[in-house]
Amino acid sequence: MIAYIIRRLLYALPILIGVNLLTFALFFVVNTPDDMARMQLGIKRVTPEAIQKWKAERGYDRPLVYNEGAEGVGKITHTIFFEKSVKLFVFDFGRADDGRDIGHEIKTRMGPSLAIALPVFLLGLFVSVSFALMLAFFRATYLDFWGVVACVAMMSISSLFYIIGGQYLVSKIWHLVPISGYAGGLDATRFLILPVVISVVAGIGSSTRWYRTIFLEEIGKDYVRTARAKGLSELTVLFRHVLKNAMIPILTGVVVVIPLLFMGSLLVESFFGIPGLGSYTIDAINAQDFAVVRSMVFIGSVLYIVGLLLTDLSYTLVDPRVRLQ
Amino acid sequence: MRYVPIPAWLALATILGGCGQEWNNPYPTQDGGRNILYSAFTERPKHLDPVQSYSEDEAEFNAQIYEPPLQYHYLKRPYTLIPLAAEAMPLQRTVDATGRDVPADSPQVTHTLYEIRIRPGILYQPHPAFAQAADGKLLYHSLTQEDLKKVYSLRDFSQTGTRELTAEDYVYQIKRLAHPRLHSPVFGLMSEYIVGMKAFAEALKAADKALAASGNKNAWLDLSKVPLAGVELIDRYRYRIRVKGRYPQFAYWLAMNFFAPVPIEADRFYAQPGMAEKNLTLDWYPVGTGPYMLMENNPNARMVLERNPNYRGEAYPAEGEEVDRAAGLLADAGKRIPFIDKVVFSREREGIPYWNKFLQGYYDFSGISSDSFDQAVRISVEGEASVSPEMKAKGIKLEASVGTATRYFAFNWLDPVVGGGQTDAAARERAKKLRQAISIAIDWEEFISIFANGRGIPGQGPIPPGIFGFRTGADGINPVVYDWIDGAPHRKSLDTAKKLLAEAGYPDGRDARSGQPLVLYLDTTDRGPGDKPRLDWYRKQFAKLSIQLEVRGTDYNRFQEKVRKGAAQMFAWGWNADYPDPENFLFLFHGPQSRAGTQGENAANYANPEYDRLFQQVKHMENGPVRQALIDRMLVILREDAPWSFGFHPKDYSLHHDWVSNLKPNNMARNGLKYRKIDAARRERLRADWNRPVLWPLGLLVVVLVAGAAPAVLSWRRRERTLGRSQ
Lengths: 325, 727
Fold this sequence. Notes:
Radius of gyration of chain B: 30 Å
Helix content of chain B: 25-40%
Order of helices and strands of chain A: HHHHHHHHHHHHHHH
Oligomer: heterodimer
Largest sheet of chain B: 8 strands, mixed
Mean pLDDT of chain A: 87
């Protein structure tokens, strides 16, 4: 298994280089280093000398990917792409365009992001799986029918509607929790209740339908009929047999997102004033801060690769037949 | 297993989190009833270093912390400069090339000297940069990496200290404008005026290179070692700035953070290796002598200012405008300020939560977005704005003021169709008439009504009300676009515009020579669905003259690039004043400052030799009848040439709760927090009234969940009891 993990990690290297190259190309198609300098220096009284100085200090005065003026390997290494990318592979994110330490920002913002994402993930998984099992239990009845109708209705509504509606009803009209904001420690609970509930509710529709489909497929299999024939109760059949055997498709969708929980949610963090990594990314895109955008995309890619690896590993835990070689 | 319904968890968590106060109160319980002002910010400040900070978002913080020599009087209008850290207004002398005093209006003036005396006894806020050991040695100026291991913010330094503000700190800050590792937006401008600034910058660059060459790259660069010819330290409390020629506007710069003091100890403290990596910089933690100090800098969530315990205390102004006494703005005259102990700024990225929290009493102020305008404001038939009955019932008050800003629609002077740079006089005349026709057709009154909720005054020229040079009444209108009828300006008829268009060679919007329809191009950054009504409105204005308007939407970078290169035919833009002087608006048309030519602020690239000549006369003149006459002449030229369709001067509307007092809009000064006052007890009472938790929805939710689950439970039980069932 260790050889498999090492091999997978080595496969990740070209993927990360590719992602980096793609991010670099997309970013610099839209923004030139001059644009970035102007964004940081403001629009009033900015001189060409100031722009040149800003670029020189941050290494943006070099060619993008190929330096004709350099010698030998310097043609590749003395470029913006090489200099800005290579440090990422040792997780040295450097400084944002406004001079602030990106690593420090990521560390401080990871907590608030996780504080929302983790409960949403766990609670959402629990509620969706339970609801899907219930629908599977009552399959082909009016409960199943109306449950599916509710799911379709819920997944058809924009998450922005849940957010604004939730804030309006729960915070503005009923005064039950703060509309937005964040605090450290236990006090964070008051600020997290509403975004967590809204995120869970907004995600129930689609995930329940997905899990219901998986469970229904399993329920039709022979081992379920055998279990019933043994006289097991329907609940035992569902929880001990169906749920266990449906774990592989569930894990495929679930484990891969676990590492990505660190990345936060763009929309929820923005509306609820949560100072997490999602809002950090949005701020960086708005400020054309390539250093931050590049770092966040890189971390996202690494976490996604880790998620895929964890998914493969998790298969061995739930299905003894699976061997990783 | 016994199930506890989710709503019960919700209620429990809510109660635990917010016991003892309103459940939706976003602030800690212990802060209830305290003398704290609550505000919000939407954009995180990029720079707090006073040599770099230049935006209003940043000034909201910096202006409370730093004390430049001068400030604007809080209540007087027109805006008046008064001493802040200075003991009196700067002593000004004009001298000739030999250094002899000459009258200010003498043509022999080569330099102006500003001598500033700082008040003795002003102390800096407590800061570790000043902390001293018993032997007088600075405690934290030789920190090692080991010392910094457990340091993450300034709070991690156990000791703080202070010292008296001296004139040397002001001199040091002026030198920092030229610091090779900093980017001061005003360095270019100041190097044109302050004697020796360019040479000083070169000397610093050389010193910095020498440091790097000796293996000390990024080590502290001691600016005090390098002399700056134009800035002289006279004694502990006095310094002198030598400015080239006459530059009366220089006094306004002395009221900005660029000229606030920075103590050498702070610069040296923050320059230690390892500090910048931990965000321990002057850009993150300002050090000032003002009424407040920054205690928490978390631009992602919250910025907190607290009263500076070393603040000397100023007196609340005893003079103001006539209306100020009636408005109660002079009730605290002579009292020691600041009144408020702490100011909490929370980050709100979205408008909806910001607005709702203001209505709940959790923010003391709010602007008014277009979405909430109808809910907040009523405009009477006379055009007077007041708060809506709903706001009035809550005691919310409206403050309105005309901003020192202008919004305009520019015609690129370099463009062969709408510009005025053609060599052929007849072609120039035709283009002028085209611009005049369009200026008449664009109905800015309608624009203000539709897109600005009535918040603006149609522009008759670039100078907004409240700035010297602005005229009211018939003398103040743009006669090319307006007629003065029955004591009010009326936009000229479309027939007049069409006549001008025909004279320009485009009868009925077609080129008289080719018969082709006239197509003009508007470059804009408006591209989203929300911008469509505005773009359609522009098309409609041009369609009135049968001109086809093509909108070229692009991102802001490309838009700026086009304007920089003089490639945009027409565009809408704006300007906010740096200081309340007409020069700060009239220079937007100065030929040598064209955007395409010199990257200056003349974005329309307008050029008129007579205008430029008058500008040279006006720019350094004292306000008075002669200056007014010259400005009038310049406005006549601008109105006739029409390089802009003068759009409007925006009105700023803001709301505040009635527990906030001493609030008067001031578009130039940002250090107004020290004058404000709140009635925290009243706020506490009203918050409790307005935010009583409504509990029945929790009960209803429980009922709905139980009702929803009951059929499932009953059905499950029935199935479990069934002995056999058919598939």
